[in-house]
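Notebook, bench 3.
Goal today: get a predicted structure for Putative neuronal acetylcholine receptor subunit alpha-7-like from Stichopus japonicus so we can plan the truncation constructs. The sequence was checked against the plasmid map this morning, with no discrepancies at the termini. Length recorded as 79 residues. Pasting the sequence as submitted so the record is complete.
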Amino acid sequence: MKVRPVWNSSDPVNVSLQIAVNQIVEMDEREQILTTNLWIEQHWTDQKLVWDEDDFDGIEEMRIPASEIWVPDVTLYDK
């Protein structure tokens, strides 16, 4: 079970998304279907993963596998 990244469970989690098209794989004009490869970057603050960088040799950020932390459930729709 993943724990939401806020101390107060009723607080919202603000997530920002950046989406970039890496490749247009196929375009079917007749059927109006566009197949692409996308790069999706998500940003949010996890209040439970906060530290003082001065205590850790100036480390400002780190990367943690998504399998180890809460991640937003994002679904892209095609309309």
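Strands lie at 16-28, 33-43. The mean pLDDT is 90.
Flagging this for group meeting.
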